[in-house]
Amino acid sequence: METKLFDLSGKTALVTGGGRGIGLAIAQGLAEHGADIALIARTKEQLDVAGQRIQTNTGKDVQTFPFDLENVGQIDILFEKIRNETNGVDILVNCAGTTIRGPAEDVDMTTWQKVLEVNLTAVFVLSQAFCRRRKQTSKPGRIINIGSLTCHGARPTTAAYASSKGGLLMLTKTLAVEWAKYNITVNAIGPGYIATELTKPLWTDEDFNQWVLSKTPLARWGRPEDLAGTAVLLASKAGDFITGQIIYVDGGWLALL
After folding, report:
1. Edge-to-edge strand ranges of the sheet holding 36-41
2. Contact 145, 171 (CB under 8 A)
3. In the 3-class helix/strand/coil scheme, how is 186-239 assigned residue by residue?
4. Cβ(234)–Cβ(142) below 8 Å
5. Each residue of 130-153: pLDDT tens digit?
6. Helix residue ranges, H only, the chain
7. What is the dihedral of CA 16, 18, 23, 26, to 10 degrees?
8. Which amino acids are annotated catalytic?
9. Which of 42, 13, 40 is nearest to 28 (CA)?
10. Is-contact 97 126, C-beta < 8 A?
């Protein structure tokens, strides 16, 4: 068996939402396996800290690009800039996301559109930019979308978020089928409940914490780094024949009746 199935040396991975949490953990995991990294997030200071951390821990080249993905019309220009400054993007990880909770009957169109723009439309436009450039090179490419348990089911007050993630799952499948002819694989990872800075109000709420633990056979919250191995699999030669799939990293959540 080949011994370098997970080796990403010579590859460049672009990770959105890479300033912290899941995006940062995935970026570091890819770097640990040899990839150079390009990070997108809204906050420059956050990106600078994240980039320095990855460089210090892995020795890989990291470039950062502050950008708000709500600016969908500027994404193609941004991608061309990144491609030029990194000498090409081999792996695209769409991790950036947002949510605004509220009863479905009270969701206004500004809220609805904001969540859909960041979680679904920006993913599509970035993936388009990746595909257009990648197919010109005749080299294989990898797209990894970060989904959610709401790709499978929903909870109250998540109408916009669940709709965006359900759409993301079908976008993943559609692009996988359509872009296989370009040797671009497209897959998704569905995290369970992951303890991050953004979810701190949830895991520090004792009632909610106990509910999560009761629903998770492994009886703990996930950690951002729990997702890195799956991302490496899907980005590497080991994932050559995997496309159109979502892999849930949920501690057994969806297996439990």
Report:
1. 62-66, 36-41, 12-16, 91-94, 141-146, 184-191, 246-249
2. yes
3. EEEEEECCECCCCCHHHHCCHHHHHHHHHHCCCCCCECHHHHHHHHHHHHCHHH
4. yes
5. 999 999 998 999 999 999 999 999
6. 21-32, 44-58, 75-86, 109-116, 122-137, 159-179, 200-203, 206-215, 228-235
7. 100
8. 161
9. 13
10. no
Distance CA 91, CA 26 (A): 12
Domain ranges of the chain: 12-250
The dihedral built from the CA positions of residue 107, 108, 109 and 110, taken in this order, carries a sign that is negative
Task: Convert the pLDDT of each residue in 166-198 to its tens digit.
Answer: 999 999 999 999 999 999 999 999 999 999 988
Q: Nearest 5°: phi and psi at 198?
A: -70, -30
Name the CATH topology of 12-250.
Rossmann fold (3.40.50)
The rounded distance, in Å, linking the Cα atoms of 196 and 192 is 12
Cβ atoms within 10 A of the Cβ of 133, count?
Answer: 16
Q: What is the pLDDT of residues 71-91, one digit of tens each?
A: 999 999 999 999 999 989 999
Reduced to 3 states, what is the DSSP secondary structure of residue 5?
A: coil
Residue for token pair 């300033």: 19
Instruction: Confirm if 64 and 44 have CB atoms less than 8 A apart.
Output: yes
3-state secondary structure of 126: helix
Q: What is the DSSP letter of 9?
A: T
CB 20 within 8 A of CB 197: yes
Under the banding of pLDDT at 50, 70 and 90, the label for residue 1 is: very low
Q: For residue 169, what pLDDT is reported?
A: 98
pTM of the complete model: 0.96
Q: Which of 239, 241, 120, 226 is nearest to 169 (CA)?
A: 120
- How many residues can be counted in the chain? 257
